[in-house]
Design a protein that fits this description.
By secondary structure, the chain is an alpha/beta fold. It has two domains: 181 residues, Rossmann fold (3-Layer(aba) Sandwich), CATH 3.40.50; 105 residues, Roll (Methionyl-tRNA Fmet Formyltransferase, Chain A, domain 2), CATH 3.10.25.10. It contains eight helices and 20 strands. The strands form five sheets. Strands 5-2-1-6-7-9-10 form a seven-stranded mixed sheet. Strands 19-18-13-12-20 form a five-stranded antiparallel sheet. A four-stranded antiparallel sheet has the order 14-17-16-15.
């Protein structure tokens, strides 16, 4: 069995699951690379990444480079004398970094590659109405998420799944796969598979405000999938026209109602303490939402202090 000296690279909570699994399995983590502290919140106080917080609690050396090609960082990285690097939700690495360790650098990606390469694979698998996804480990090469596959694990996506619940599921599944991949490398039993060339690849585009807005002219399933695939982060949104008020509101928990009706797409219907929005062949029942500058709240709580006009609609 190979004696592994591991450098772990990651930043958000999703990466902590794998780092925690490695630590608890007594693997030799000689260093952690994570994003620099960033100002956040109203006070703009510097906030440490989730990976940094966990690493410091476990007395693991932490490096936070701003430039992955800087001589100072490369010198520190070489000094760690790692023979394996593991990347989970970090950033694109230059070749001088990923080619450094003797046993390579592998990445954990939250999709079944080659589909959903890119920044937001968990979100897009739900937005696109998939019923299955998974996690994949692969050796990093010069392109994004294209390297030779080491191993993968699959899981179902339920019809009520949100990106929050699927994120947690894949965090655990990914940590298991990272441990299995490390064992394969330690035992020198890795057999990789080159990613196939596939036409019409599904892509996990980066999310931004424009592609998180709801189009109420789409069909009921498409709209509901999108809201679920953005709940709770970064959240779907729409513009509410309520008499003279025009408000951008965020949508979270919903229910799908199949029902033919005479209403125009986007009409807001308030009845019996519920909020429904009309779409083709049904309604989207809004159970949790957020007005600008307000906290997230249940529809019933909102209706206690907010009045929708008879002509209210969303676009």
């Amino acid at each position: 069995m190979r004696d592994l000296r591991i450098v772990f690279m990651g930043t958000p909570d999703f990466a902590v699951g794998s780092l925690k699994a490695l630590v608890e399995a007594n693997h030799n983590i000689v260093g952690v690379i994570t994003a620099p502290d960033k100002p956040a919140g109203r006070g703009q106080k510097l906030q440490q990444s989730a990976v940094k917080i966990y690493a410091l609690k476990n007395q693991i050396k932490v490096l936070q480079p701003t430039n992955l090609k800087s001589e100072a960082f490369l010198k520190e990285l070489k000094a760690l004398d790692a023979n394996l690097q593991i990347v989970v939700a970090f950033r694109m690495l230059p070749e001088i970094v990923w080619s450094m360790p003797a046993y390579g650098t592998f990445n954990l990606h939250a999709s079944l590659l080659p589909d959903y390469r890119g920044a937001a694979p968990i979100h897009w698998s739900i937005i696109n109405g998939e019923n299955e996804t998974g996690v994949t480990t692969f050796f990093i090469d010069e392109k994004i998420d294209t390297g030779a596959i080491i191993a993968f694990k699959k899981t179902d996506i339920s019809t009520t799944e949100t990106v929050g619940s699927l994120h947690d599921k894949l965090t655990y599944l990914g940590s298991e796969l990272v441990l299995e991949t490390v064992s394969l490398i330690a035992d020198d039993k890795v057999q990789t598979t080159i990613q196939p060339e596939v036409s019409n690849l599904k892509t996990a585009y980066k999310l931004h405000k424009n592609n998180c807005k709801i189009d109420w002219n789409q069909d009921l399933d498409t709209i509901c999938n999108k809201i679920r695939g953005l709940n709770p982060f970064p959240s779907a949104w729409t513009t509410l026209h309520n008499n003279e008020d025009v408000l951008d509101i965020k949508l979270y928990d919903i229910k799908k109602i199949l029902e033919d009706h005479p209403f125009k797409n986007g009409k807001v219907i308030v009845e019996n303490g519920t909020i429904k929005i009309s779409v083709k062949h049904g309604f989207v029942k809004i159970e949790t939402l957020q007005l600008p500058g307000k906290r997230k709240m249940d529809a019933k709580d909102l209706l206690n202090g907010f009045q929708f006009s008879e002509s209210a609609y969303v676009v």
